[in-house]
Amino acid sequence: MDVDIFIAPKKTVVEIESQCVLLNWRLMALRKMRINLLRLTFIPVIFLAVFARPSWLPNENVFTDFIMELGGYLFLLAGLMIRIWCIFYIGNRKSKELVTEGPYSICRNPLYVGTFLLAIGVGLSFASPFMVLSVLVIVVPVHVITARMEETNLGTLFGEEYRMYKRKVDRFWPNFSNYTSPETLSVNVHSIRRIFFDTTGVLLLPWIEDWLELLREQGIIPVLWHSPF
Length: 229
What we know:
single chain, Four Helix Bundle (Hemerythrin (Met), subunit A), 2 strands, mainly alpha, two-stranded parallel sheet
């Protein structure tokens, strides 16, 4: 008895290249969606930063206020250093090649971990636990959902290489025993520019908070709401 055997045709180079272009486009679209969503959801956070104050008054709890602001600065610096470290490795290579060295050998999304620390630092620098909670409620879900969607596309783009990397390295939780790094790195000008803007933005935050506090004390900016904590 004759048996027909179906052999699936191999993908042509053009088809593979087209698939890679499509996947890269999807990853870029995800990043744009994440950025636009964060911009939209940060509107209430900006309101809290400008027009709200925690329920306690700084002149009554000077020590608590100082400790929270100091903690905020430390979190900001930690988040900034992690993001700079990541940019040196990921640079302009994201979605073009699978980066598994440096901070990416410790966890799969160290850039997002740095963003989480920055979010905590923003809330603490304003001496407001309520703002810390508000920022985390916005930042963490957006980045977790984005990371999961990116993983699907990266798995299709890099295949078994990415699946092996995914099994070895956690999404966010660091494992320092996995650390590997080349002796030299090639960093492009775009990465240096990004580091400059990240650093400038983070270093300006404490100054912005101080100016807002001064304007509120002078009655130039009204306090429209006192947060519960």
